[in-house]
Amino acid sequence: MIFKLQSTFVFLFLVSNTFAQQPIIIEKTDLTEVKLYQNGAYISRSAKTQLNEGFNEVVFKNLSPYINSQTLTVKGMGDATILNVSFKQNYLKDKYKPKEITMLESNLDTLNYKYQQVLNTSAILKEKESLLLANKSIGGANNGVLADELEPMMDYFSAKLTEIKDDMLNNSLKEKKLREQIEKIKNELNNRNNKNNLPEGNIVIEVNAKGKGNATFELGYLIATEATWYSFYDIRTKDVNSPVQIIYKAKIIQNTGENWENTKLRLSTANPQAGSVKPELYPWYLNFNVPQVLLKGTRDMRQNYQIQGDAPAVMSTATPEMKSVEVTLSQSQLSSEFTVAIPYTIMSDGQEHQVDIQSFSLPAVFEYVALPKLDVDAFLTARIAGWEDLSLTPGAANIYFDGAYVGESYINPLETGDTLTLSLGRDKKIIVKREKLKEFSSSKLFGNIKERSFTYEISVKNTKKEALNIVIQDQVPISQDKEIEVKITELSNGVLNDVTGKTEWRLAIQPNENKKVRLSYTVKFPKNKQVSGL
User: Fold this and answer.
1) N or C: which end of the chain has fewer CB within 10 A?
2) pTM beyond 0.70
3) How many helices (DSSP H) and strands (DSSP E) are in the chain?
4) Is it the case that residue 12 has pLDDT exceeding 70?
């Protein structure tokens, strides 16, 4: 009996000792890397702590509340075993009030004080007006007033009333301005407080250690929302004899609840949220619709379940060697990834943060293009070959020519062929006109057939000091009905695309030279029908 009691005592002591240990709280983890996708971010963190012998609960605090718990990965270095990993949202954290919110609250208090002063002044002015109007009777009810006494009284009354009305108007304007300022600060405060009142993300790791000692943890998790990056470009060229410089940049926006301070960034074109499982085609059956009746007292049992599993793992006793990544661009069959060499700080403020990615200098073929049917100006374009290896993504581009900003364009490599064509802006020194020649345009009837003829003349004048090459683009209509016949009668040596109807002329024009081309065609169709687009 005595042995049995002692065994029970020892067992109870071990159990109570195990569960009496307080959780190990880690308030700050080291942010080692952010891999940013165009929709989401994968965060890598590390932290060191000391484990007690036996069971340990380690809580990593001050993390994003938007962590996708299914993506949690944990690695450990130390003589211990990871039993369980989970993610929790802590709504009871002590709220830290950033200085921006404190300053806004102080400004709001000042404006509210001024606003109250203005309201007080308005009330006083109304009392003055009421008092003046209440005492406008002169001389009493039975006594008259001499003319020489009336005029000064009227002047005094008019001056005082005008003064009060002007003060009331000025005060009303101050009141309106202060009200607008107060409303703006209130909106900004509400926006910032909503972000500041987010719950705190906690990662909880249960560990069984063989003995007391140091341990290092490496955490990884995906934040599927509240973080994004998109590309934009600066495109610069000095003149038509110089290469084109493409400066590839990224704008990063994050509101994850974590500040990414002085961290290494990797920008990926992949989408981790897109399904990786190839879809399958199943037999497509056709049946007559049969109405389904849901009996009273029954309910639809179809439900969606989301399974969240934990991630047990064994901690390694070896410490991995940390290496700095020197390659700025890595490519796979499915995506491209940029490693930014300089650490950046990206605050969780929902604001745009600019990051430079790469700069390229590429040879280009420059030529002017004009579409006088749509626009009277000629556009300078640059055709760039060899762009495929740059891993460009769609984005807006600021165009600079000869050091001056000339406008905005758009790069969409997904819709480009072997050559990337960029529009560098308008050139007002090239005068392009498109005129319909009435003497060569007509409408005739041949029995039941109506024939309409069209002739357009396009002229291009070069007022520049140097010769230039220009591409003129126009079009002829394409028939989609056998009863509509289109016939080309003149192209002036233009090249016609029979499928699209696009016509091009490539012209070399000397300084002060003016060249003309003509486009003529006829359209035949039944006279009792209308043809759209003519």
Assistant:
1) N
2) no
3) 3, 29
4) no
Segment (H or E) for 231: strand 227-237
Query: How much of the chain is in helix, strand and coil states, percent to nearest 5?
Result: 20, 45, 35
- Read off the pLDDT of residues 284-316 as tens digits, 9 standing for 90 and up: 655 544 444 433 333 332 222 232 333 333 343
| CA proximity to 236, closest of 460, 71, 403 | 403
The whole-angstrom distance between residue 393's C-alpha and the CA centroid of its chain comes to 14
pLDDT for res 429: 93
Amino acid, single-letter form, for residue 232: F
- Phi and psi dihedrals of 491, rounded to 5? -130, -10
- Residues 353-367 pLDDT 10s: 998 888 888 888 889
Task: Report which secondary-structure segment, H or E, holds 330.
Answer: strand 329-331
**Which residues have C-beta within 8 Å of that of residue 449, sequence separation ≥ 6?**
524, 525, 526, 527
160 token code pair: 């005082």
Beta bridge partners of 86: 204
C-alpha distances out from residue 136 to 123, 148, 156, 290, 364, Å: 20, 17, 11, 88, 86
Q: In which region does residue 335 sit, left (phi positive, over 0), alpha (psi from -120 to 50) or beta (all else)?
A: beta
In our burial notation (b when 16+ CB lie closer than 10 A, e otherwise), range 62-89 reads bbbbbbbbebbebebbbebebeebebee
Residue 387 in contact with residue 422, Cβ under 8 Å?
no
Length of the chain counted residue by residue? 534
Distance CA(5)–CA(158), nearest Å, equals 107
CA–CA dist 218, 85 (Å, integer): 12
Structural contact between residues 394 and 376, judged by C-beta atoms closer than 8 angstroms: no
Q: What is the 8-class DSSP label of residue 238?
A: S
Contact 34, 45 (CB under 8 A): no
Q: Which residues contact 259 (CB under 8 A, 6 or more apart)?
A: 345, 346, 347, 348
Q: Which of 322, 327, 319, 400 is nearest to 358 (CA)?
A: 327
Residue 127's H or E segment, with its range, is: helix 99-134
Residues 6+ apart with CB under 8 A from 423: 379, 380, 381, 399, 409
Q: Which of 61-70, 164-173, 281-290, 398-407 has the lowest mean pLDDT?
A: 281-290
3-state class (DSSP) for residue 193: helix
Token pair of 244 as six digits: 């084109």
**In sequence order, what DSSP letters do the residues of 503-524 get, joined into one string?**
EEEEEEE-TT-EEEEEEEEEEE
- What tokens appear for 456 in the block? 């357009």
Dist CA 84 CA 67 (whole Å): 17
Report whether 296 contacts 381 (CB < 8 A). no
Q: At CA 38, angle to CA 34 and CA 39, rounded to 5?
A: 90
How far apart are alpha carbons 299 and 496 in whole angstroms?
66
> Of 344, 30, 413, 390, which Cα lies nearest the Cα of 217?
30
